Amino acid sequence: MKVTIVDYGAGNVPSVERALQRLGADSLRTNSIACISNAEALLLPGVGHIAALVRALDEQKLRAPLVDAIHRGVPFLGICLGLQVLYECSEEALQLSGLHLLPGRVSALPSNVKLPHMGWNQVAEKRESRLLRGIHKDAYFYFAHSYAARDANEAAVATCSHGTEFAAVIEQQNIFAVQFHPEKSGAPGARVLQNFLRLAA
Amino acid sequence: MSLAHRIIPCLDTDGDRVVKGVNFVGMRDAGDPVVLAARYNAEGADELVVLDIAASRDRRPTFLETIRRVAAELAIPLTAGGGIRTLEDGRVVVRAGADKITVNTAAVERPELISELSREFGAQAVVLAIDAKRDGDHWDVMVRGGRESASRDAIAWSRKGVASGAGEILLTSVDRDGTQSGFDVELTAAISNAVSVPVIASGGARLPQHFVEIFTKGAADAALAASIFHDSIQPIRALKEFLAAQGVDVRLPC
Fold this sequence. Notes:
- The complex is a heterodimer.
- Chain A is of the alpha/beta class.
- Chain A has helices at residues 13-22, 33-37, 50-59, 63-71, 81-84, 186-200, and strands spanning 2-6, 26-30, 41-44, 76-79, 89-90, 105-108, 117-122, 124-125, 140-145, 147-148, 156-161, 165-172, 175-178.
- Chain B has one domain: Aldolase class I (TIM Barrel), CATH 3.20.20.
- The chains are: A alpha/beta, B alpha/beta.
């Protein structure tokens, strides 16, 4: 199986690619509509401003093939902005439409804590998570974001807290997503990616 | 469950070698950046910073190659900087594998550099490095490797930097740097309380107790050091175990 990394120009694509290589996984970075339509498994990384992601998907005409593939059941892993874009919209760019694969919106973390939420934090499993399988409950993951999915949502199998509780891990059928950066989260992060590879195989 | 205080080793590089000075002068060779990066990644460092202290144009390709080789060793975030003067300089460093970019002198001279980088990469990728030196009743911003005064108040500059789009402050005490007499708790607390973003304290670390102080009294979110890690005076794992025993939240490998 090959993981198709949607490469719309995000900064963390090379590190995601390297993390997959370390696990012995075959991957392809692409912004080709055909490659995304024919993908066996999809990975959408993303860091920075959500408007850059949404605009890139639309300008490169990747929105429809991506959503279609996910609707067909192709295993999908979103990382950071790749999680946030699954919702209807984000407060970071309200004029832009998300992928509408999950209900609700992404909102700003409260300003009574230091932002961005930057560094290593732990997550609380709300129900059995397939992505977190085999990972110690006290493990830390690396976060770097100021917006988050704060709406209580059945798809959130694990949450994190920084000023408020928010979705850290999303699992809904073939849709998987993490707010943290597994490619930057040491051994537990590698295990998340490995779990996704197994689920997608 | 809470955000861990970060321990960050810093590699000051000149070309393809790590060097570390005392009070920014008297450089000596401390090793191969790739070897050190792999060691810190394995020992539980929370991030790694690589600074090109020479920042000369002709050595730039060597520095970018160092970033690429270091990034290949890491499963933790990498910050790179030194000599970043333009948006294009930032792009090249990010493309080489850095997750965050630090800017210092060039941002003092042209603060729009911070907003340009922040717009392109997001605030979480822009680290404003401030070298501060005590001057009477305030702290002065120093530039050009801590040698020249920018005649600017460090607290005011940190606020302006954050308003311009910096997502983190890397605060070095020029007075303490290289002295191993402890972090500047007063300076760090003053800046940390003045801004809404995380602050990385730097300069003066030697003893584990120095790290406890900077996290508790100094309100630092992260602490950076170089030679005590390079010389194995203070192994990272033992430091984190000490901090955990003192009640400081740190990430211990599970």
